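Please complete every field before forwarding. Incomplete forms are returned to the sender.

SECTION A: IDENTIFIERS
Entry label: holo-400
Bound molecule: adenosine-5'-triphosphate
Molecule representation: SMILES string

SECTION B: INPUTS
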Amino acid sequence: MFLTNLTLSNFRSYHHVETEIPRGILLLSGGNAQGKTTILEALFYCAAFSSQLAENDRQLIRFEELKEPVAVARIVAQFQKSNTEHKLEIRIIQETANFNTRVRKEILLNGIKTSAQKAIGTFPAVLLIPQMTAILEGSPQERRRYLNLTLSQSIPGYAQALTEYNQIISQRNALLKLISERKADPQQLDYWDDLMAKRASFIIYHRIHALLKLEEFAQEAHLRLTANQEKLCLNYQPSYDPAKDSTGNEPSKYVMSNCPDRSSFSTDEIEKGFHHRLNSIRNKEIERGLSTIGPHRDDFRINGNEIDLGTYGSRGQIRTALISLKLAEINWMQTKTGVYPLLLLDETLAELDHQRRNDLQEWLNTCNQGILTTSDLSHFTESFIQKHVVWNVTGGTIQK
Ligand SMILES: Nc1ncnc2c1ncn2[C@@H]1O[C@H](COP(=O)(O)OP(=O)(O)OP(=O)(O)O)[C@@H](O)[C@H]1O
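SECTION C: PREDICTED COMPLEX
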């Protein structure tokens, strides 16, 4: 895929900017708070239909625009995919009526309104912002969010299965609570258990296979970035593990060799096992009024030379592992969909040592299309800067 044009209107600090985007690597250079990250944020919004930086969509509408009765922020990305031109337009709209303010979004693909769930995967992108070290250091929720977003972009039906699974969990939890208060019949759970096992097995199956493939690609990238010093492993820790019987021990958080091979399980086998497990813990779940196993409780850990980097990694180690994971994501998405995603890297060279910077730049030289931001061009080699396009971003404007 190639992004060819980008238009931003009333998005964050941008009043209106309309620009062609070159192929290959584009470096956005500029001082702090000039609007570099905003461009990456807007582009990744086209992939995920949510911001990875804002708490809510309202924050994305330019302050001045918010004074209008109807305030609209617009992102338009034009791109080529499989030799066809596409146009993706996102409008984030704040409306005020009867003293009530609400913010909604509209997504138009080639002029036709669509939903985020249907459109996900249309504009594949991989984003790395410094805050994403939370994938390693943060809570399991951060890692599930990361996995879900990555898989939703590349696996047809994953986003829908996830939405349905989350709805099932809410309904099932409400029922468990009623049963625990003796206000409903436990047999009513049978219906929800069937639905839950079906959706859960689909999600677990794809997480198993995606993490195995991501690990393979991440290991390759990481050995390159660490001069063969560190072996990276992604250790899936599903809350229902098809490889274990109901009394199995948890694998150690720190030792990768304990990681069981789950790749031979079919979705049917996972579904059956999941169902069996739900039956065996039914009383406990009723007591707690909660769904205690399933993809909503999964985790995965990232280990370097068998050490959990989220807990023990240095800043540089964590950053490098994150870069390896992101490079793996590109390879995995391309293998899975046949489409090369757009790479978006925010201040990625900062905090890397000289050798790792050079290795990453070498890799970037082979990249299909990527947009990089930097507030310090001296992080890049002279030859890298000569080879690629550099634009300056100042006060919400782009100077070419
Ligand atoms: N809704 C908004 N309306 C107007 N300005 C905003 C809005 N949201 C954020 N900004 C401003 O946009 C500016 C640009 O932010 P951005 O994160 O893109 O800068 P940057 O060039 O990446 O800086 P840094 O190098 O410090 O990361 C910031 O000064 C920020 O306060």
